[in-house]
Specification:
Length: 348
């Protein structure tokens, strides 16, 4: 079956004689109706358009969803508030996972399951609503605080991903209440309050894991911004030919992912997946690792970031040059999700 799938993918890819096809025109033909991948599915499409077909090497099935070989670290946050010994154990677990894996799952994080389920339902409600309502938000202007489109890097990537998305900046300067999509507005704001508490706690634990005071990462504004990104993966008629989200590493500092049986991490009921971002790898001077996965997050600021001075020494000199979140994000977006990592661009 694996060989057959690979042959089918190869057969559908353009040959060298076909590589001069007008890809830009096809991209525009997909983008201009402003209905995204869901629009294709709703129209009854039976074949994946050529712009979505990925090369065979993109399909690494070694660790598929639910694979028994993929044992993601799980950190239980329960019982540490009044127990220093318990807190130290949790810090050690966070350190180990951040250094060796670059991501982990947290349970007993304090976000009520009712809120997480309503958040998932709100996301589905947004993408299932009348296309004409969504078209009003569809844009490629990355400066807007509310953005709906399909593939932020549509015109830069080698192959488009089979997904639509909606991005909303929620901190430190959120859009007016009425500009947040009504289909998910209230639950997004409720979920924001809950996940912000989790984020602050995670930054404390990560600070301690680096041997710093608990407030260090928050004090240097790593927790200042918050953006929410909803990814939607419609049913695909030929799933063996395309990908929901290409392999990538998150820019910014930290991603907290609420999954709905989609990403390649075996789900634990009520768990949140925490990803170390590129900028946290940079300021930790490579102690924490940002790894390839299928998620995203966060928000720009004008502060300059480089390896944390308290972590440096003659035996551990800085490995990265300083950069702003804005400049880092600009490079990340220009590069696109091309399976290459962004941090090497900033190495000294």
């Amino acid at each position: 079956m694996v060989v057959d799938s690979a042959l089918e993918i190869e057969r559908r890819l353009p040959s060298k004689l076909e590589q001069d096809y007008d890809r830009v025109s096809e991209l525009k033909a997909f983008d201009e109706p402003k209905t995204g991948v869901k629009g294709l599915v709703d129209a009854g499409i039976r074949k994946v358009p050529r712009i979505f077909i990925h090369e065979p090497e993109s399909f690494d099935r070694k660790y598929g969803r639910g694979s028994s070989d993929l044992v993601v670290p799980v950190v239980d946050l329960e019982g540490m508030a009044d127990d220093p010994v318990r807190r130290k154990l949790i810090v050690d677990q966070v350190r180990s996972a951040s250094e060796e894996w670059g991501f982990f799952q947290v349970i007993n994080h304090g976000v009520p399951e009712e809120i997480t389920q309503k958040m998932i339902a709100g996301a589905i409600r947004f993408f299932d609503q009348d296309p004409e309502i969504k078209k009003a938000l569809y844009t490629r202007d990355a400066t807007k605080k509310v953005v709906h489109n399909s593939n932020f890097d549509l015109y830069q990537s080698k192959a488009a991903d089979w997904r639509d998305n909606m991005y909303c900046l929620l901190a430190p300067s959120p859009p007016p209440y009425e500009e947040i999509p009504a289909a998910c507005r209230d639950i997004m704001l409720d979920y924001q309050k809950q996940v912000t508490k989790v984020g602050f706690l995670l930054f404390e634990l990560l600070s301690e894991a680096l041997g710093l005071k608990p407030s260090h990462l928050k004090d240097i504004n790593c927790a200042e911004g918050l953006a929410m990104l909803l990814n939607y993966y419609p049913v695909c008629p030929e799933p063996e030919l395309t990908i929901g989200t290409s392999k990538h590493q998150d820019d910014y500092f930290l991603t907290v992912l609420l999954q709905d049986q989609i990403v390649d991490v075996p789900p634990i009921p009520g768990a949140l997946v925490v990803n170390i971002g590129d900028l946290l790898q940079l300021i930790s001077n490579d102690q924490f690792k940002s790894v390839e996965h299928r998620a995203l997050a966060s928000q720009p600021s004008s502060r300059v970031y480089g390896p944390i001075k308290e972590l440096l020494s003659e035996s551990n000199p800085p490995k990265f040059r300083e950069t702003t979140v804005r400049d880092y994000t600009y490079y990340f977006n220009m590069k696109g999700l091309d399976s290459t990592s962004a941090p090497p661009h900033f190495r000294i």
